[in-house]
Amino acid sequence: MSVVERVLVIKHGALGDWVLATGCFAAIRRHHPSAHIALLTTPALADLGGRCGWFDEIWTDERASLLAGPLAWIGLRRRLIQSEFTRVYDLQTSCRTGVYFRLLPRRRRPEWSGIAAGCSHPHRNPRRRFMHTVARQAEQLGLAGIGDVPAPTLAWLDADIDALAPPGAFALIVPGGSAHRPEKRWPLERFAELARLLSARGTSPVLIGAAAETPVLDAIARRAPGAIDLGGRTGLGQIAALARRATCAVGNDTGPIHIAATVGSPTVALFGAASDPAQSGPCGEAVTVLRRVPLAGLPVADVIAAAERVARRA
User: Fold this and answer.
1) Buried b (16+ CB within 10 A) or exposed e, 211-240
2) Which tens digits make up the pLDDT trace of 264-279?
3) Looking at beta carbons, which pairs linking 98-102 to residues 24 or more positions away fall under 8 Å?
4) How far is C-alpha 179 from the geometric centre of its chain's CA atoms?
5) What is the arithmetic mean of pLDDT over 166-177?
6) Following DSSP, what letter does each residue of 107-154 receive, concatenated?
7) What is the SS3 assignment for 84-108?
8) Taking a C-beta distance cutoff of 8 angstroms, is the pair 125, 131 a contact?
C-alpha cells in the first residue's frame, strides 16, 4: 500500500502578497501531483485557498502572539506533528514561521523550504530582501527542486457581475488600502478629479473597496457625480470579473489592484515611499507603476495620461 505524500504550504500575507504567490502554488501542485497538499493561511484568505484548486485542505492561523495565545500555539504544534508532513514550503518566511519550524521535534522535522535556521532547503541569498517577491520565491522553490515557476495567475477567480457592471466603457478606481498604512493612499481629492476627467472622456469611473472604505468612496462619489460607487458590494471574484471587462484599473498599492493586474486588466498602480514596486509591485501583462515621494505630490495629469496609455496598448 503506497503512502500519500503530505505537503504543507505556508502563506499568510496581505491579499496582494498572496496573489503574487499564486504562481508558486501552481508550481508546487505540479511538482507534487498526487500529494495531499494543505495551505496554512489567515482566515481572510481561506476562501481563496479553497477556490483555487491547488490545495486539498485549508488551515487557518489567527496569528496569536506567543504570550496572548499559548493554547493556540500548543494546538498548532500538536496538529503539525500529527499531520506528519513530508515537506513544507514556507512562502511567508517570517519570524513567526521560523517558530513553526522550531515547534517540531528535531527528529520529526519534515523537509523544509524557507529561511529557518537548520532547515533542509534554505534560501540563503543575502539579497533576498531586495528581490521582487515573485523572483525571490521562484528562486527559493528552485533550490528545493521546483523549476519553471509560472507567473501569478487568477484564471480561476470569477463571479457574476451582471448587476454591477455599467453599460459602455468603464474604469475601475481603487482608492482604498490598508487601514494601518494611510501613507500608501493617494489623496481622495485626486481620485475625485481623476473620476471627473474619466467621466468627461466617456469612461464611467467605478469605485470599488471594502465596506470599511465606504466613507472614502462616498466622499469621492460626492465630488464626482458621474462615478459609480460599488463600495462594500464586490467580493474578490467580482473584482476579478470587473477588472477583465474594464478599460483600465487605477489605484493604490493594495490587494484589488494586484487582482486587476493579475487577471490582465490594463493597470496603473500608484506608489509612494511606503512600499517599493521593485519588491512588491503588481504583475501582469499591461501594468504601469507611477511612483512619487510623497505620493500626494503625484499629479492627476500623470495618472490620467498613464491610464489612457495602458488602455490603448491593451
Assistant:
1) eebbebbeebbeebeebbbbbeebebbbbb
2) 999 999 999 999 999 9
3) 99/66, 100/10, 100/76
4) 16
5) 96
6) GGPPEEEES-TT-SEE---TTGGGS-HHHHHHHHHHHTT---PPPP--
7) CCCEEEECCCCHHHHHHHHHCCHHH
8) yes
Instruction: Map grid coordinates 500575507 to a residue.
Output: 13
Average pLDDT over residues 73-88: 93
Q: Show the domains of the chain with their CATH numbers.
A: 6-143 (3.40.50.2000), 170-313 (3.40.50.2000)
Q: How far apart are CA 203 and CA 58, in angstroms?
A: 40
Q: Please return the burial class of 45, using the count of CB atoms within 10 Å of its CB with bins 0-12, 13-18 and 19+.
A: buried
Cβ atoms of 175 and 254 closer than 8 Å = no
Close Cβ partners of 167 (under 8 Å, ≥ 6 residues apart)? none
Write the CA distances from 299 to 104, 154, 190, 304, 311, integer angstroms.
Answer: 52, 31, 8, 9, 19
Q: How many helices (H) and strands (E) does the chain have?
A: 12, 12
| Burial environment of residue 37 by CB neighbours within 10 A (0 to 12, 13 to 18, 19 or more) | buried
| pLDDT one-digit tens code per residue, 95-105 | 999 999 999 99
The 10 Å Cβ neighbour count of residue 182 is 9
Q: What is the pTM of this model?
A: 0.95
Q: Which residues contact 185 (CB under 8 A, 6 or more apart)?
A: 175, 176, 177, 252, 295
Report the greatest alpha carbon distance in the chain: 68
Instruction: Answer for the pair 115, 88: CB distance below 8 angstroms, yes or no.
Output: no
Q: Which three cell numbers stand for residue 37?
A: 497538499
Please say whether the beta carbons of 14 and 255 come within 8 A. Answer: yes
Rounded CA separation 25/137 (Å): 10
